[in-house]
Design goal:
This protein is mostly helical. The chain has 13 helices and 7 strands.
């Protein structure tokens, strides 16, 4: 439909895909030829040295007029993937076709389209840890048990069910997240340790629950106004909801790391994920922080 480049120099293609998603065709049934074409599509993607990463009923589109199956939503795709990612795609596809056509047909078509060796290789990746939430919901709605699906595929391939692949890996990012969580937990515990709970209980007995509800609503207003201010500091149209959630994340970061730099880092990363160039993201976050400090100083000097 159109082509261009992002501010960071990445190529951008907007493609129009015909047909209907696999989830919308589930109720009407799928033909075996369409299931086989799904395997061919994923195989061609692998031959192009790309892994999809999030195959599910919504990412497969069937064009019955042309007899083709297309893959959409490549936002989580990986170029030059390793063997784990390739086999994860195959495991996701087996589960996706099972959610649409049942375990027996899905396994039979997988054997026909990929062969016994390929089916045996993908078995360790037929597990919930390899599936996204949409695929998990589709399997649950279809009444497909993942363990039963894996055992059925193992029987068809003539092999014993293998041990599951370990897909959860410890990274520096995950360790940093745990560290921040520990810091935040310690801060909350230190705060709670200074609370007189008996006095708090007596206060609650005479409290008006209507005022408590009103106080809860009013307590959210600063985050809303902060979100509005943050939207005004960036040269892009951003939805209010996600920006508000960023303010909640910033509050958490400021609790874990009591410095304004932590909040600025969250804002900068959010702007970048929304397509704002790095320089503009840093500048906008700085402008927002500086403006807030100026307003606070002005209010302090007046009152």
């Amino acid at each position: 439909m159109t082509a261009g480049a992002t501010a960071r120099g990445d190529s951008l293609l907007v493609l129009g895909v015909s047909g209907e998603s696999l989830e919308s065709l589930t109720a009407g049934g799928l033909e075996d030829a369409e299931l086989r074409e799904s395997w061919s599509t994923v195989e061609r993607l692998g031959e192009a040295n790309i892994a999809h990463g999030h195959i599910g009923p919504a990412s497969l589109r069937v064009d019955r007029g042309a007899g083709e199956v297309a893959l959409v939503d490549l936002g989580g795709g990986t170029v030059a993937p390793d063997q784990d990612r390739r086999l994860t795609d195959s495991g996701q596809l087996l589960a996706t076709t099972a959610s649409a056509a049942g375990t027996e047909r899905a396994v039979a078509v997988a054997m026909e389209a990929s062969g016994r060796e390929q089916v045996a290789a993908l078995l360790p990746y037929v597990q919930l840890a390899a599936f996204g939430q949409p695929l998990r919901r589709a399997l649950k709605a279809a009444g497909i048990d993942v363990d039963e699906l894996r055992h059925a595929a193992a029987r068809a391939a003539g092999v014993e069910p293998p041990e599951l692949a370990k897909l959860r890996r410890v990274t520096w990012e995950s360790l940093l997240q745990v560290a921040l969580f520990v810091f935040a937990g310690a801060a909350v515990l230190s705060f709670v340790g200074g609370v007189n709970f008996s006095e708090f209980e007596r206060a609650l007995r005479g409290a008006s629950w209507g005022w408590i509800a009103a106080g809860f609503v009013v307590a959210q207003l600063p985050r809303v106004t902060q979100a509005i201010a943050l939207r005004g500091s960036v040269p892009a149209e951003l939805p209010l909801g996600p920006v508000y959630l960023v303010q909640l994340a910033t509050s958490y970061m400021n609790l874990a790391v009591p410095t304004s730099l932590a909040g600025m880092a969250v804002n900068v990363r959010f702007f970048q994920r929304q397509g704002v160039p790095p320089a503009a993201a840093v500048t906008s976050s700085t402008i927002n922080s500086l403006a807030g400090n100026v307003v606070q100083a002005a209010c302090s000097s007046r009152w």
